[in-house]
Amino acid sequence: MISKKLLMMLAILFGMSIAVQAQVETDTEDEVDEEDEIVVIDQSGNEEVIEFPEAMTYDLDSLLNEYMSKTYLTSNDCNMKNENPSYPTEVFIDRLSRMPTVMEMAHNNVVQNFIDRYCTRLRGTISYMLGASNFYIPIFEEALEAYQIPLELKYLPVIESALNPRAVSRVGATGLWQFMLATGKQYNLKINSLVDERRDPIKASYAAAHLLSDLYKVFGDWNLVIAAYNCGPGNVSKAIQRSGGSKDYWHIYPYLPRETRGYVPAFIAANYMMTYYSLHNICPMGSRLPAQTDTIMITRRLHLEQVSNVLGIDIEMLRALNPMYRHDIIPGDTEPYALRLPQADVNRFIEMEDAIYNYRASELLTNRAIVEVNDYTPTYYHKSKRFYKRGKKGRAGRNAKARRGGKKAKVSRRAAKSKSKGKAKGKKRRRR
Predict the structure, then answer these.
(1) 160 in active site
(2) 311 CB contacts (<8 Å, ≥6 apart)?
(3) Is 163 left (phi over 0), alpha (psi -120 to 50) or beta?
(4) Which of 159, 199, 289, 372 could form a disulfide with 135 if both were Cys (CB 3.0 to 4.6 A apart)?
């Protein structure tokens, strides 16, 4: 019998399925570029077009233009030929089966098509991901371990966001884990005009681990969990129902939304590539990311430029380490917020705290707490505004008298109205 707690969780998850589902919607099929699709031929010889995960279609040049990439990722000469060796299908099956994973890493022609795409056209993107993963993967592993869920899920952001914390999908899913706004708020991520914690690598990772754990309590299968993460638990439940009740991802496959059909194969292929990249002559980009960072709690309103100029830290580095602050402003006067700094600069911040908060505060933090209203009376004012200035002699004065007069005033007004109507009728009669 299903427990009351599980029923409540189901209701919450199904309630958010519309928000999650938005991640897989496209305006029209014509807008999908042919290079962003994979064509699979089934056993009957029929062609099936599968949409590629959006993050894996990002232009590599735009990814490399991100500050973290420009500053800390470099091409690495590892003496490998830039060519993809071919292997028989049995080799791919064997490699996938030997991966130390709890999740099922099955092989089929759909998975193989994704692996082939990663090995050829997306070699540069995989090289970038391998370099960026040195910074992000330990964060993901800590969050997943906290919720005791499979560590292979650390590669989910590879296909969700291409490991870009500022990534925004065409429908507004944001951050490394691509949370929609409603889902992010449901998992206690703060989102307002100044702060978007969907971009915070640490907080978003713990929220994603919590969501994945909740989905597993509903579906009990990790392939179904990541399908539900992409298209919403409602769509996965419908697919299960339409398939006759099967809980095998590959059995409900035809009943899922188009992009979700490619989502699990793309995830399996990503795990394969991040494990066996060297066997395909893919060289990771070199990483010079900060060896250690630390946080300090901010309890006053602070602009990143204040920190940058006083401590002499590159403003772009501060933005890269603190991507959750949308306009470089930390609203510490609302509640304490964390500022991430290279560890060597934390003590310097503490020593120079007053100087940092006071530096150009009036220029950079322009929202005023108190403002005076200009009560100057101009010599000219618009005719329609006149009654505000006439006081008791104008319309306002007449209304005030009427209010003071009570019932008598009302009666006198009615009498005046009827008298004026009578005069008007008399005039009309005379015109006739």
Answers:
(1) yes
(2) 345, 348, 349, 352, 356
(3) left
(4) 289
